[in-house]
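quick one
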Amino acid sequence: MLGPLSLADATETEALGARLALALCERSGWVVFLHGDLGAGKTTLVRAWLRALGVQGTIRSPTYTLIEPYEIDGRSLLHLDLYRLNDPEELLQLGLADTPPQAGGWLVEWPERGGGELPAPDIEIRLEPDGLQRRVSISAGPGWRELIEPVFGFRITSVPEAGP
Ligand SMILES: Nc1ncnc2c1ncn2[C@@H]1O[C@H](COP(=O)(O)OP(=O)(O)OP(=O)(O)O)[C@@H](O)[C@H]1O
Ligand SMILES: [Mg+2]
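structure w/ magnesium ion:
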């Protein structure tokens, strides 16, 4: 596991999202699960991720649509928010098979709601409240960890030293 790391405000969550986007932008086939309670900062991170890849205009949260597709540089990305999924079986009706992770990548909020119908994650991001701030930790499977590690390394060394 990488982290936990403190994110002092939404700007830092966005910075992390942008760095993750750039770390993975050369690769396809990733499935990213975003764990965290309501308001933990999952959509904030995803918006910054998509923004960093050049998505312009309003980036809608798929709160009600459950799914929001993006075409970026020849890759197909999906942003999923499964909070309002009533039954994992409903996933089969969302047309996910048309845009498999191999076409680009999936960013999934509330993956717990997908039951066993989602592919296994390559990367899991956990956001937790920490007072008014957030704490983040990331687990990444083989082949992905080395891409993510530098993102954390950079952030950790960028934390100011404590003491006088
Ligand atoms: N590191 C942070 N410190 C403090 N506030 C933050 C931080 N990161 C994000 N926020 C704020 O927390 C809120 C998170 O909202 P966001 O919609 O991203 O949460 P979410 O996890 O997607 O929630 P939901 O489960 O409802 O989709 C936003 O107001 C955002 O500005
Ligand atoms: Mg959200």
